[in-house]
Amino acid sequence: MLSTVALLSSSTCSDIVEQQGPIIGKPDVKVENGQFTPELLNSLGRVSGPTVSPDGRKILYGVTYQDIEQNKGNRELWVMDVDGQNATQITKTPSSENNAVWIEGGRRIAFVYKEGDVTQMWVMNADGSGRKCVTALENGVDGFVLSPDEKHVVLISQVKYGKNAQDHHPDLKKANARIIDDLMYKHWDEWVETIPHPFVADFDGSQVTNVKDVLEGEPFESPMKPWGDVESLAWTPDSKSLIYVCRKKVGKEYAISTNSDLFRYELATGKTENLTEGMMGYDTYPIVSKSGRLAWLSMEHDGYEADKNRIFLMDTNGEKKDLTANWDYSVDAIAWSPDEQFIYFICPFQGTQPIFRMEVATQKVDTIASGTFDYDGLAFAGPDTLVTMRHNYAMPNEVFSVKAGEQPKQLSHVNDDLLAQLDSITIVRRLVRTTDGKDMVTWVVLPPHFDPAKKYPAILFCEGGPQSPVSQFWSYRWNFRIMAANGYVVIAPNRRGLPGFGTEWNAQISGDYGGQNMKDYMSAVDDMKREPYIDGDHIGAVGASYGGYSVYWLAGNHENRFACFLAHAGIFNLEAQYLETEEMWFVNWDLGGPFWEKNATTMKSYTVANPKNYVQNWNRPIMVTAGEKDYRIVFTQATQAFNAAKLMGLDARMVLFPEENHWILKPQNSILWQREFFGWLDRWLKPQAAPATEGSAPADSVK
C-alpha cells in the first residue's frame, strides 16, 4: 500500500528568499461608529506559537494577517523581551514562517518556510538576518523537533500512500481514476495519496544530513491525521531515542479504531519498542522530563475519540501511573515544570479553559490562572513563570505571562488599537436549570450599548463536536462578538455532551443525539425568554457540524420556539452520514453502529435522533451552507436538507463553497459567509423593535 519515493533532491530551496509577490502585513483599516464588521474581523492579527529563549529573556512568536484582496494570509515572526517590551518584527517575507524555535542558546532560530511549491527547514540569526535553507527533502518538511543536544532532528515529511491509476495501468498515462480496495481512502478534506512519516537526521547547524525514514516501507502515519503535529514527537534527554505517536493500523482496522501508541525508536540500532502496548485508546502528546520521566495523554477506550484524556506517567523504571484518577476532567495540554515537581496543564473546566498545576508526588491540583478566559499554550520563562496566550469572546489571542499567586500580565498588544475603537460587549455567566434538575452553565453575550428596557432578537448557538467545549473561545467564523455587534443576544449553553463538567456530563450524549442535549438547548431558550429584554418571537438557532445537526433536529421538534434556522456542514441524514464519513469509530461509538444492526441504540439513533425523519414538521425558514471539499460531513447533506425545505414550500437558501472544506477559511469566502449569515438572520429576526415593560441589567457580567 505504501511506496517510498526519493527523499533528497539536488536543490529544492535556495539560501536567499526571492521576493515573490506583495508582502502581507498589518492592514490599514478604519472603524466606523464602533461597529465590528466581517472585514474588521479578518483584519485582526492572529497571534500564535510563543516560545521562550533558553536564557528566559526573549519571547519568539508569530502574527498572521489576512489580505482580503489577495484572499490569503501570511505569518511573520516577532521577538519581544520577556516583560513585553521592545516588540520587533524580524521577518518580512511573502510566505509564512512556522514551527519557529530557538537554537544555539538563543543565538539563532530554526523554522519551516515555503519557497515556491516546497516547504523546507531553515535557520537564521535571532534578528532575522542570515537566512539559510538546511533541508532538501523532495516532498518538503511539514514540521520538525530538534534533539536536546541539537545534533539531531526529526522531520515530518509526506510519503506516497497506495497506488494511483498509472501504477495499476502503466500504459494509460492520461487516465485519471481512483482505484480503492479498503477504507480510509479520504480524510476530512483530502483523498489520501500521501501520509506523514518521521525522518531522523543529523544536524550541524548549517545542514541536515543522513536522513532516515523511521517508518520506511510501513503504511502507517505519524503524526496521525488530521490533528497530529510536532507535539506527537519527543526526544529522550540523552538525544539517543525518539518517541513518536502512531496508530499502526490500515484500512478497515484503522477506520474503526482509535488505539494509538507511543513508540520509542533508538537512533543507533533502529530498534523500536511499543511503550503503551495494551493501552487501548488514544495515547498522544508525549513530554519527557530532563531526568527521563515520560508523561503523556491517554484515553481508556478504543473507538471513543472524546474519552477522558488522562495524564499518565511512566517513571524511569517503566512503571505507569494514572495521575488523574481522581480528576474528573479531560486534559488538553501538558508541560513539565523545570524542577519536575509539577505538571502544568490546560483543560476545559466549567465553561472556561484555565491553567492548572498538579504536584506529581501527591496528585494535588492547584489553579494557576482562571477567569472568564481560555488559556492556550504552556512555555516556561524561569522556574515558575509561564508564557501562554489568552482569549475570550471579546478579544483574540494575545501573549500573557502567568505566575502562581499573581495576576496574569498581557505582554503582546497586537490588536489593542483596533479593539479599542470597537463598541464593547458584555459577557454573562448564567446557570440554567435543565429538565432533569441539573444546573447548566450558559454563556450569554449582550450587544454593545445594551439597554434592558429594550427588546432584542436572540441567537441560540449550537456547538459542534459534539464533544467540544463551549468555553471562552475566539472564532473567526462563529464569533460571538460580531453576532452581538449586529444587535443579537447570543445564548451559548454548555449542553449535555460537552467537556468541562465531568465525564458523566461529557459522555451522556453518545447514543442519545436527539435526547437530553436537545432538551438542554430548549431549557436555555425557555429560560432566556423569561427575560423582558428578549424578543421571544424572534429567536434563531444556528450551528455547524454537530451544531448543524442540532439545527436540523430542532427544526422538526422546536414547538415554535424559533423564527428561523441556519446550519453549516450539518448532518441531516444519519443513515447517509454513517456510510459517507471516513472515521468509522466515531459513528460506531456515537450512533451505536450501522443502521442495519437493529440494537436498541441504533434503532434510537436512526429513528428518534435522525433529523430527516421530522421534515414534515419543518415550519420556519432555513439556510444551509457547506464546503464542497468537506469529506467528513459531505456537502450532499446540505443539499438534501435544502431540497427537503423547498419541497415543503419553505423559504430556504443554500450557499455552497466549492473551494472550502469543513471550515470556511479563505478571507473573501469568510466575509461572504458572514454577510449571508447576518443577511439571513436580519431578514427573519429584526422586525420593528418594541420596548419591554420592565427590566434590569443581568447580574454576574463581565465587560
Number of helices: 13
Biggest sheet features: 9 strands, mixed
Give the averaged pLDDT, no decimals.
95
Computed CA radius of gyration, to the nearest angstrom = 26 Å
Topology:
Layout: E1 2-3, H1 38-41, E2 46-52, E3 58-67, E4 72-81, E5 88-89, E6 97-103, E7 108-115, E8 118-125, E9 132-133, E10 143-146, E11 152-161, H2 165-168, E12 186-187, E13 190-191, E14 194-203, E15 208-213, E16 233-235, E17 241-246, H3 251-256, E18 261-266, E19 272-274, E20 283-288, E21 294-298, E22 310-314, E23 320-322, E24 333-336, E25 342-346, E26 355-359, E27 365-369, E28 374-380, E29 385-392, E30 395-403, E31 409-410, H4 416-419, E32 426-433, E33 439-446, E34 456-462, H5 480-485, E35 489-493, H6 503-507, H7 516-529, E36 534-544, H8 546-555, E37 564-568, H9 574-580, H10 584-591, H11 600-606, E38 622-627, H12 636-647, E39 652-657, H13 667-685, E40 701-702
Parallel strand pairs: 34-35, 34-36, 36-37, 37-38, 38-39
Antiparallel strand pairs: 1-11, 2-3, 3-4, 4-5, 6-7, 7-8, 8-9, 10-11, 11-14, 12-13, 14-15, 16-17, 17-18, 18-19, 20-21, 21-22, 22-23, 24-25, 25-26, 26-27, 28-29, 29-30, 30-31, 32-33, 32-40, 33-35
Primary descriptors:
15% helix
Task: Describe the model.
The protein contains 13 helices and 40 strands. With 703 residues, it is an alpha+beta fold. A hairpin with a 2-residue loop joins strand 12 (186-187) and strand 13. The protein is globular and about 70 Å long. The longest helix has 19 residues, at 667-685. The protein has a nine-stranded mixed sheet with strand order 39-38-37-36-34-35-33-32-40, sandwiched between helices. Mean pLDDT is 95; it is low at 1-6, 8-12 and 689-699. 15% of the residues lie in helices and 33% in strands.
